[in-house]
Queue: 4 jobs
Job 1
Amino acid sequence: MSNPRRIMVDDTDSDIRYTGSWVLDQTGDLNSRGNFGPVYRNSVHSANTDASFSYSFNGTSIGIWGSNNIANNSGVITPSWACYIDNIKMPDRDPFQFFENNWLLCTQDNLVDGPHELTVNVSTTGQQFYFDYIGYFPSSTVSLSSKTLNVDHLDPAIQYGAGWQALGSTADMTSVAGTELTFEFIGTSLSWLGLTTPDFSRNASNAIFSVDGGSPATFQLHGLSPGSNTAGYNEVFFTTPNLTMGKHTLKVVHLGSGAQTPLTLTNMILVNGTFPSTPSNTQTTQ
């Protein structure tokens, strides 16, 4: 049985084994490109010659994310890549012509629970290939201490108050003033990610968060700029201060109205996390 939260493995992780001429890019130059948000932890590994990397893990599902940066040279797509689990090729994904960060390069579900070996082979004629992070669902025997976890908006530990509603299958949202959310977790920091679409009001709104009943901190929901009709994804709405390792409770309250930008939640990134308990997810629609 696997854990219900995905472990995030940054490209800088020392357990990733690189072969070939890779360059660590921490300039942040890619962060403003596309509409899928900044690169994870402000770092990517890039290669403009043939290269590869590998990673060993215990789990049941894995995905590899990077910055999509393909060129079509007279029908030849470059860079190209092939992903393998235990020397078996993973399914190819259709090429996408536009640059995007946080792009799923390959994925494999329904693995036999246990140890596996990931290998990614890159072929390029000079166009940069960007690798950002790995995410996998670990086996239940894998310790989650000192790990970074991706907490999906459907995670059963998230307690949605009245006024929240589903935004398709991608997120939850609220535009009701006073709507609350609580989340009990173990870790040392947490980031809240959401999205903004052209369907939302562009009038900015505010929300607040607090940890363990402490003083609330305000964060602003800006909405899309005038004239923009492109949704924005993977937007970091706030990050908590560094916390002592242990059990904490996050509380978030939306202060806006239906005439302002709503509060959305796609996922949270939990640092040094574990999964202490699984209360039933509760959600009341408007």
Note: Confidence is low (pLDDT under 50) at residues 277-282.
Job 2
Amino acid sequence: MPRAQRVHFFGAVYHVIARGNNQEDIFKGQSDKRYYLNLLQKYKKKYPYSLYAYVLMDNHVHLLISVMEDPLSKIMQGVQQSYTQYFNNRYSHLGHIFQQRYKAILCNNDSYLITLMRYIHQNPVRAGISNGLDYHWSSHKAYLRGDDNLVETDFVFNMLSSDREVALQQYLEIMSNGDVQKSELVDGYITYETDQKPNHNTTIMSNITISQLLDTVAQETGIEQDRILSEKGKRAIVYARNLFIYSAIKKGVATKTELASFLGISLPSVIKGYNLIQQHQK
């Protein structure tokens, strides 16, 4: 049976898990992990994506990735094949080092994204590694320093608060909440890929749909719906789009990740638009 393609749309967020073949180690030393991180950086430039969290354990990898124009499969193919070549050459190994196809779990909920980040950063704790959260090969340290050029910490911080110090405190509280339970995680992964986006005409937490809200914002601002959805640059249109984003989130019509896919923009752009209107409202 041929493999089904994975879901792909601009702004889709995935929890990626790549394990060693037969649970064998894929990293034999720190230099191997450093090389893998360099590959993530290399392919981030080639196929732009956003990385929100990672951890490199000896026999597996966890990544929290948001894709843009290029599908996840292209990114992971480049990273995994390049690392396999490196590993085989260095250790005179033949064949696959990764366990068949990586798993990719689609994340379409803001709170679940935070849960996944917590789960990923707590992997060393669950493994009984002595330095736990301070494990060197995890993106947790990037959130503490805020100066990492591989991980987009601003996106998660902005989800928590527009005030950086408050966001950092909230992040630390989240990370101190203990281990993520299996019941909090999605079991399995999405295996269908089309260019179709999720259906946003269903009511989520509100009594109006996202399409109805778009119509309301269009009437209030005098900007046509198509222009709110597609045009860029003009201040009035940017304001209308940001107002739509802010209203959808505040009214519980859609999450930030759902808005990113609906509008065809990145998650950081959604967060930025929301924050701009929120600051204007104060």
Note: The first strand starts at residue 13 and ends at 19.
Job 3
Amino acid sequence: MDNGSNNLLGDFLRARRESTSPAQAGFLHAPSRRTPGLRREEVAMLAGVSNSYYIRLEQGRERNPSAQVLSALARVLRLDPDATEYLYSLAHPWARPQVETGVMDQVSPSLLRLVNLSRHAPALVLGRRFEVLAHNPLIEALYEGMTHIDHCVRMIYLSPAAVDFYPDWEKAARAKTAQLRTAVAADPDDPYLRGLVAELTAASAEFRRIWALHEVQARGNEIKELRHPRLGDLSLSWEVLSVSGSGQKFVTLAAEPGSHSEWALRELVESLTVPASV
């Protein structure tokens, strides 16, 4: 899944070790070093395991660490709850919930009606593979100038306008890539997800760079910072509701009352309702 690697646990531990500074781990007066992050022996010492055991973990020769070892590694590497859950899923893949692999999502008629009834707010249905399964006309108006709007991850990496559309493109790309890695961990044999990672790896050097960071993040509510080509900078709340039993998400975007973003959304609504002059 990771560019041919079958050592996802070791790859993840190495990436997070290299991104954890000695100061973060409590080595306040560590001398300068040629390579970034912690040394293997430092992680082993702080986690209470032998250096040889930790090396076997990174090399993929030890694949069954105990819950106590995983908890210690999460602490040493300063993993947040999403990254900790991901670590456990890599170490104990048999504990993952079974997902029906290869079956594409279908949106129920009632959910489609809900999307179409959202006339004053951009609304969409997001599949578990990051596909935009349905959306109302306001989504197209909001994402004016963007390509690949039928897929959240492809849009960030393959749309030529993405770098300008997201004021902080790096933050947006890293968040979506971290969410993709979490989805892959939950269903590593899904051919669609495997193909998506292979496609983006071949098409984008930026994806290859960010994917190699091994960051993980669950999907949820967040603030979207966007730069509309006509209406300027927008700050919108991305509100997510899970659809029971489907893995799908119903998403709406809302603006703070009285803000420029609220005015911009009204402008988009009016642009869709006012007939074009002949």
Note: The chain has a mean pLDDT of 87.
Job 4
Amino acid sequence: MKTNKNEQDFVLRYFQSGKLNTMAALRKVKDRVKEGSCGKSQDATSALELISISQANRTRRLRWIAVAASLLVLLTVGAYTLLMPRTIVLKSEGQVVAYNLPDGTHVTLSPYSSLSYSEDDCRKVEMKGCVYYQVKHDEQHPFDVTGERGHVWVLGTQFMVDERTDAPEVMVTSGMVMFAARDAASGVFLTKGKRARLSQGADKPQLLADYDVNDVAWATHLLHFVNAPLQDVLDELTKLSGKQYVASDYSKRLTGDFNTDSLPQVLSVIEETLGISIHQN
């Protein structure tokens, strides 16, 4: 049996002949040493267990924080999406379509045209194609039209914006508008009966000859003729219907106003008034 120096010192110090059982004393010393070591081991184990529990709790807290942060982001994005004003889009396919805007403005879209605006501001619109506007007057809120190339500002008036070509045109049937290039700060003023065209690459629109009121008949449903040759009358009817018409006598001329809601009725009135026959080619 091996003993270390500490054990030997203990025995020598307390040895009394006939009274001390050296082997028993050594066993007690060893037992005390073991008890000390065991206690320290248990303390270390307990400390490690506490550290492990603390780390687990910290991990769980971090996970919950990450989940809460993700939920907060989702809620923020969702709230923004719900609160953000929607864009309203009005379209026409193969036929003329009319709409009333929330402010009382009436718009008529020619075939394959579109108009859009934010649901919280219908006085600021964007368009494509050809649109006829009958704008509700509001001095506090100008009506703003932005096309692919042109830009028009008005307070309350009636006009047509035609952007079906690379040279957009504006025609005014009532009131006054400002017509400019899309990104320009200034343009030209147009009043009733006036028309202007923005040529491709031009800085400012140029005035044209006064327009014919029948150019907007597709939207207003009104035709106006003053001593017009019959061929001109039939040409206007062809524009509206897409059909070709021929007459028995082209020497006639016509004066009058017609509502185009029923073209067959218009043709019948013209035939009776001029004493001719008209049929579809």
Note: Residues 53 and 59 are 10 Å apart (CA to CA).
